[in-house]
Design goal:
Blueprint (H helix, E strand, L loop, with lengths): L4 H32 L1 H33 L1
Helix pairs in contact: 1-2
Length: 71
């Protein structure tokens, strides 16, 4: 049974509100963490950035090796 346009709008509004709440909770959590343990947040951020760079480097190395295998 198809949903009416109003039901679609209500469902979309619920999803958007949930996304806004999740973003707000994440911001509040990061703000609390920043004031309660700034060195821990800095260490975690540095570690995450380093790991992200390592993953990116490995991915591009894999692509280069894959393309190089054709030649």
């Amino acid at each position: 049974m198809p949903l009416s346009a109003r039901q679609h709008q209500d469902g979309d509004a619920l999803v958007m509100n949930a996304k806004k709440v999740i973003v707000l909770v994440a911001i509040v959590f990061l703000g609390f963490w920043m004031f309660s343990d700034p060195s821990g947040l800095a260490t975690t951020s540095k570690s995450a950035a380093t790991n992200g760079w390592d993953i990116t480097t490995e991915a591009f190395t894999g692509v280069i090796d894959f393309v190089g295998a054709f030649g």
